[in-house]
Write a structure and sequence with these properties.
- By secondary structure, this protein is mainly β.
- The radius of gyration is 17 Å and the shape is globular.
- The chain is 5% helix and 46% strand.
- A hairpin with a 6-residue loop joins strand 3 and strand 4.
- The strands form three sheets. Strands 3, 4, 7, 8, 9, 10, 11, 12, 13 and 14 form a ten-stranded mixed beta sheet that branches. Strands 1-2 form a two-stranded antiparallel sheet. A two-stranded antiparallel sheet has the order 5-6.
Length: 169
């Protein structure tokens, strides 16, 4: 299937309830999508353009790919937070490549996606960076991050126990 010049896999349909006006909409959902030369799939991590060009890109994990009510390609992502983006701020033991999983979900336009990224465990960080440097995954080594904690964006609390939130990674 094609959408505005983009090759798409055949969609699976899903009934979505718009909570504002309680109308039921039929939206097309996809397991993967090609944007330009890059394919994005469910469960992959992406860099998301910030508000200004000087901002670091945000980081999110794709949970849904769909055509929104305005007929635009959109992603539902779960955000990762850098330590300095949390209420607790960056501490001495946080690395520049460390991020926290979170409970912050949002729908974004595909136009905001800058490229692929990876989030792995601290134990797999070096190996993933090396593989990225060899061109094995389609993202640069500087787009590799590790996660060992969870950030509750609603409460502003960093949990030291990631295992309880591993399904969010």
């Amino acid at each position: 299937a094609e959408y505005m010049g983009t090759t798409l896999p055949l969609p699976r349909t899903h009934r979505h309830m718009d909570t504002e006006d309680a109308e039921t909409l039929e939206l097309a959902h996809f397991a993967s999508i090609n944007l330009g030369e890059t394919s994005y799939g469910l469960g992959e991590c992406v860099l998301i353009r910030g508000v200004s060009s000087s901002d670091l890109p945000f980081l999110g994990k794709i949970f849904d790919i769909f055509i929104d009510a305005s007929a635009n390609i959109a992603f539902k992502v779960r955000y990762y937070y850098r330590p300095h983006e949390t209420l607790g701020k960056r501490l001495w033991h946080h690395s520049a490549h460390e991020v926290f999983s979170s409970n912050h979900l949002d729908c974004i336009s595909a136009d905001l996606v800058m490229g692929k990224a990876a989030v792995c465990t601290l134990e797999n960080f070096d190996a993933t960076c090396n593989e990225a440097a060899e061109g094995k995954h389609g993202f640069a080594p500087e787009s590799v991050f590790f996660c060992r904690q969870h950030y509750d964006a609603r409460e502003g609390i960093i949990s030291p126990e990631l295992e309880a939130h591993e399904s969010m990674m």
